[in-house]
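Box 3.1 A note on notation
Throughout this textbook, protein chains are presented in two layers. The first layer is the amino acid sequence; the second is a token string describing backbone geometry. Keep the layers aligned when reading.
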Amino acid sequence: MNMLVSSAAIAAAPAVAAPQESAPRTSEIATDHKAVLERMEQVVDVLRTRHIRPGWTLSADRAAAYFRRHVRGPSFRDEDEDTEEFHHAAKFLHAHGQSIYWVLFGDPSFLICGLAASCCPAEHPIRRKRRQTRSSTLSRLIKKASADYSAAIRDLVPGTLDPDPEKEETFSDREAEVRHELATSVPTTLAGLLAVLT
């Protein structure tokens, strides 16, 4: 599919971490089942012995058993049984917010990149929430003032096409005040103003 993308959109896109070309592919890495089991047991032990949140439960027995079975036996009947148990273990790790790449390969780069991608390092969380709340409040005020202004100029005296000049002036002033507040609040960008005003 062909798409036209502006260079501004590409420049504004967030950076995405990509693995280095020199890093070995996962299919080229020999699996050390004992190390994998140790990392999985560490995950299970930490999750069992720490307080995560009220009401949180852990059901790790089947997932941990998959990795134990690769080290201690018995071997799987066939590839289908192995695949089914592996998928259950992978679902367990995903459901509990753990990195399968760290468990299988001991590679923390996926953890590091994932955490970096999920945060906003340039802005403190409390300041970000205040900005979002202020922006949301101002946006609601502008919408209300615009709606009131529109209602005022549509409030016609029966039989004429003239709006009520007093109401029009009052609501126009209110709308101008709200727009001024939005334009002078920090941080506001031209793109943000255009998004709110259109």
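The mean pLDDT is 71. The two ends are 30 Å apart (CA to CA).
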